[in-house]
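Minimal example, chain plus arginine.
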Amino acid sequence: MSIIASHLTALVEVAARRAGLAGEGVVIEPCMPTKDPTHGDYQSNAAFRLCKGTAYKSEQAVALLKEHFPQDPAVARVEIAGKGFLNLTLADEWLAEDVTARSRDERLGAPEPGAGKTLVIDYSSPNIAKRMHVGHLRSTLIGGAFDRIFRFLGWTVIADNHLGDWGTPYGKLMVAWKEWRNDAAYREDPIGELDRLYRWFGERAKEDPTLLERARQETVRLQNREPATLALWKEFVERTMVELRSIYDRLGCRFDVFLGESAYADDLGPLLAELEAKGFAEHSKGGLIVRFEEKDGKGLSEQPLLVRKADGAALYSTTDLATIRHRVQTWSPARAIYVVDARQSLHFRQVFAAARKVGLAPAGLELVHVGFGILRLPDGGIVTSRSASRGAAEERGEQSVNLVDVLDTAAQRAFAVVTEKNPELPEAERRQIAEVVGVGTIKYFDLSQNPQSDITFDWDRALSLDGGSAVYLQYAYARMHSILRKAGVADKLPDVPISVAHPSERALAVLVARTPEVILAAAEAYRPNLLADHLEALVQAVGRFYESCPVLRDDVPQDLRERRLSLVHTVAHTLRIGLSLLGIGVVPRM
Ligand code: ARG
C-alpha cells in the first residue's frame, strides 16, 4: 500500500521517460484526484510542463504519454482529456484489494515520511494565574491535531507547552495579592481570584503609579529567587496547573514537557552577553537590538528585534531565542512549529530571523509559525490569547470567556440532542455520549475551518445533524456500527474484500483509498480542515450508498451482503481513525 497519487505520478514518469519526454531534472506534476468521476479517479497535467522546450504541443505530448503508459495492476484506463490532461481510472479489483488491506490496518496503509525525524510542537502555552480562555483553546485544539497527525505520519513529536509563567505580570500579581486578595474567594476558585486580582491591579495602577514601582521590585525579587516570593509564585503555578491538567484531560491533550518561560530565566543573561560579545546585537536607545537586512525577511530591515530593554529587562523575544537553543540542544529537531495567534506573526518572523542570524537555529531546522485567526462568540465577545502584551485584550475592552463554561454548554446541548434522538438509552450512557459529542463539537467547529480564518462560534452549525459538525460524523459512525452489530460482525469481520460493483460503492472505496494522501496534505499545509472536509465527503458518500445499495435486506445475496458489510466496516474504520487524528471520539450508539 502506498500513496496512490504518488504511485500514479511514478507511472506517468515512466511513461515520460519511455516517450523521451523526461530528461535530467524534469519535474513531473503530481497526479491529482478528480472531482468528477467521469474524468476518472486521478488526473495528470504533466504533459503541459513536459512539452515545454520540446517540439511537441501539449496534445502531442499527452498522446505520447498515453502510448507509453506502463501496464500496471492499479490502472484500468488511461484517457486523454482536453488539450493535454491524462485521466486515470483505477482498476476495480485492485482498488477493492487495496482498500480492504487499508481497512485492516490501524494506519490505513499510510507512509511514514516523518520516520527518524523529530518535530517540536509549541502549543496551548497559556499564562499562569489566568483563566485559560477560548483563544488558547484554538491553539490547544489545532496544536493537538498536529500532534496526532504528525505522529501518525511517523514523526517523533515533542509537544512542548511554553507557559507564560515569568516576568512582570507576576510582580504585579504579587502586589495585588498582598493588597487586595480575598481568601475565601481564593479557596473557592483560585484562578478566578488571581485573574480578578491581576485585572484589578491594572485598574488601580492607572490611578496610582507607585504600584508599578512596587510591582517592579516584586519582579526583581522573583528573578532573584527570594524564597518567600518564589514560594508564592510556585503556589500560583501549582494552582494553575491543577486547572490546566483537568482541561487537558477533558480535551484529551497531551504534552511531553511543560517548559514555560521560567525554565529559561537563567539563560537570558548569558545569551544576551554572548549576542553582544559576538557582535550579533547592538545598542540602540539604551536597549539591545538584533538588526536585520531585507534578505532576512520582507520588511524586517525596518523592524529590528528588541532583546533587552533600556531598563535591562529581557523580553518575551529573548526567552524565545533561549528556547530555540534549548530545543536544538535537547532534541535536534528537524522542525519546530509554533501554534500561536496570528497576531504574533511579526514576533515569530523576527525571532526566527534572529535565531538564524545568530546561529541558534541550524540550517537543518525548519521554523514555522502556524498563526490562527480570532474566535468570536455569537454575542460579539472577542476572545484571543495574549498578543502584544498580557492583559492587552482586556485593556482593549475585549471579553474573555471561561473555557470550562463553553465545554459544559456544549455537553449540555449535546445531551439534549442525544436525548431527543435516543430517549430510550439510560441516562448515564446519554451523559457519556454527550461528553464525547460535546468535546467533539467544539473541536470540530474549530478544526473544520481554515486555521487562518477568523471564526464566529455558532451553536446551530456546531450541532447540526445535516453536516458541518462533529455530531453529524459521529452519528454516521454510530449508524454504520449499528448495521455491523445487526449483522453480528461488529467484532468479527467476514474475511472478504469490499464490494466496488456499484458506482456509489466504488466512490466510497476511492475516498477511503485517498485518505492517507489527504492526511499528508493536511500536515503539509498545516490545515486539519482538509481532513475534516474529506471525512465529511466520506459521510456524504455513505448516504448515497445507503440510497442505492441495501446491505441487510433479505433479497441481498449472501456474498454481496458480506462484501457490503466489509465496505461499511472499512468506511467506519476510516472515519474513526480520521476523527481520532482531530482528537474526536466516536461512540457505537447515540
Ligand atoms: N503565552 C503566550 C501567550 O499567551 C504564548 C506563547 C507561545 N509560544 C512561544 N514560544 N512564544 O500569548
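The first helix runs from residue 4 to 18. The longest strand covers residues 75-81.
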